[in-house]
Amino acid sequence: MSNTDTKTHIEVVEPEFPALMFLVRHGHPVSVLCGLFVFLAGIWLVLEGMMSGMGLIASTIAALIVYLLVRVLWDITRLLAETMIPK
């Protein structure tokens, strides 16, 4: 066996996180749309007679909770993106 001087070049590729980057860029509108969807679903259920007027109050509270939960997810995602993705 002979020792040949062939150099091997290893290319380093930075990882891409498309879902993470989408949520970092568009997190607030996504959280608003999720909360709005829950609220509009509650209005639709009241108009169709599947829920009483108290259900509208419950769907409003549920919409606020969904908005806040998605907003927290957005904050955690931004924190992860700052630590994981090199600049």
What report would you give on this structure?
This protein has one domain (20-82). It has helices at 18-47, 53-84. With 87 residues, the chain is an all-alpha fold. The longest helix has 32 residues, at 53-84. The mean pLDDT is 87. The protein is rod-shaped and about 85 Å long. Helix 1 (18-47) packs antiparallel against helix 2 (53-84).
Task: For the structure shown, list the relevant keywords.
0% strand; mainly alpha; single chain; rod-shaped
The succession of helices and strands, N to C, reads HH
What's the Cα radius of gyration?
24 Å
Strand elements, count:
0
Global outline: rod-shaped
User: In whole angstroms, how far apart are the ends?
Assistant: 44 Å
Oligomerization state of this entry?
A: single chain
SS-based structural class? mainly alpha
What is the number of helical segments per DSSP (H or I, 4+ residues)? 2
Number of domains: 1
Q: Overall pLDDT, averaged?
A: 87
**Main pleated sheet:** none
Q: Stretches where pLDDT falls below 50 for ≥5 residues?
A: none
DSSP helix fraction:
over 70%
Strand content: under 5%
Ordered list of secondary-structure elements with their pairings:
Layout: H1 18-47, H2 53-84
Helix pairs in contact: 1-2
